[in-house]
Amino acid sequence: MRLQRTLSLAVLAILCAGCGQWSWNPAKWFREPAPAPMAAVQVLTIESTSGGGDRFVQSWEGARLVVDVHSAGGSGTAVLKPAEGQSWPLRLAFRVHSSALAEFEANGAQALRMSFGSVPLTEPALIDLPYGIYRKESPQLEIRWLGNYR
Question: Which are the contacts of 69, defined by CB distance < 8 A and separation ≥ 6?
């Protein structure tokens, strides 16, 4: 009986020592892990036509291709085309990183113009292009973003 109790305590001590990596804070038990950073891809060729040193990063978020537009000047234009051997993605969205976004335009098979009124967007908003703005046979898509300099 004494040997059994000693072995039980030894096993319990070993198991408790292995639990040192666990968090004993219940608030952390049900928290979802942070999403992994999205890997950059090259689905579209993007050429800035404004000459403002704009930078474009493409990544997949589910079935949607998101193009992060980093604009130092706050305004600019760009032409997008499918990369060699690629086609247009089914869903396309833009996230414009500028000091303040007042307008956004996309011209392809159809035109889209979004104006954010007198209060421009200061946080990068995700702008999903609706169906029909570009089609699979569209040769290119032109975008324009305009910052607010008030």
Answer: 54, 55, 56, 76, 78, 94, 95, 96, 97, 98, 143, 145
